Amino acid sequence: MSRFRTSLAAACVMACTPAMASVNMEGVALDESVLVAGQNLKLNGAGISFRLIFKVYAMGLYLLDRKATVQDVLATDGPRRLVITMLRDVSGEDFNEAILSFVSNEAGDMQAKSIGHVLLLGKAIASQPKGLRKGDTLTMDWVPGTGTVIELNKKPLAEPMRDITFYNALLNIWLGDKPADPALKTKLLGRPPQVRTAIN
Q1: For the residues of 31-77, what is the DSSP string, one character each?
Q2: Cβ atoms 71, 190 nearer than 8 A
Q3: pLDDT higher for 73 or 17?
Q4: DSSP assignment of 131-184
Q5: Span 16-24, average pLDDT
Q6: d(Cα 10, Cα 24) in Å, to the nearest integer?
Q7: Mind listing the pLDDT tens digit for each residue in 43-57?
């Protein structure tokens, strides 16, 4: 009887414990909230990045509080997270060139301060023997007091980069005036998604 009661109690606890809520993007589960630097961040928006008609990666933006404008996102205090999960294989060189080309569109002081860090990040990505493979996850966190922390599959990809200008330059790749994917920008800002035909 004692064992039965113990098993029943355990089953009740499991049944009553809420599952971690997540958003499914083409088979990629993005948690509704994540813990970064000891703080709970909410999923601000998520979407799929396209290259022509091909799906390249799923992406999510996490903030302390949801924001609907680029200006508010860039001005946010506290930690932030960008997460990318690959939906197809991409060479490290191609990914590096894409990041560099979009950051190069940033004018003035932001570009001047960021370009050196971007080169270091690009070198780290390009050095991956197999590039970025389907299922790989790249996280880019802003951690106050530490800087930009970038991990590939939960392993550090580069040394932390302390300048907030660099992190905002990364954000502007997807949220700037000339974003990598305008439809993805809309979704990261939490706006209603648009229907788009694609090939997996």
Answers
A1: ESEEEETTEEEEEEEEEEEEETTEEEEEEEEEESS---SHHHHHT--
A2: no
A3: 73
A4: -BPTT-EEEEEEETTTEEEEEETTEE-S--B--HHHHHHHHHHHHSSS-S-HHH
A5: 62
A6: 29
A7: 999 999 988 778 999
CATH at residue 116: 3.50.70.10
Q: How many domains does the chain have?
A: 1
- Taking residue 55's Cβ as centre, other Cβ atoms within 10 Å add up to 18
Amino acid, single-letter form, for residue 87 = L
pLDDT attached to residue 166 = 86
Please check whether residue 3 lies inside any domain of the structure: no
Helix or strand run (H / E) with residue 29: strand 28-31
By the 8 A CB rule, do 197 and 53 touch?
yes
Asked whether residue 193 is assigned to any structural domain, the reply reads: no
What is the structure's pLDDT at 17?
Answer: 37
* Global pTM value: 0.81
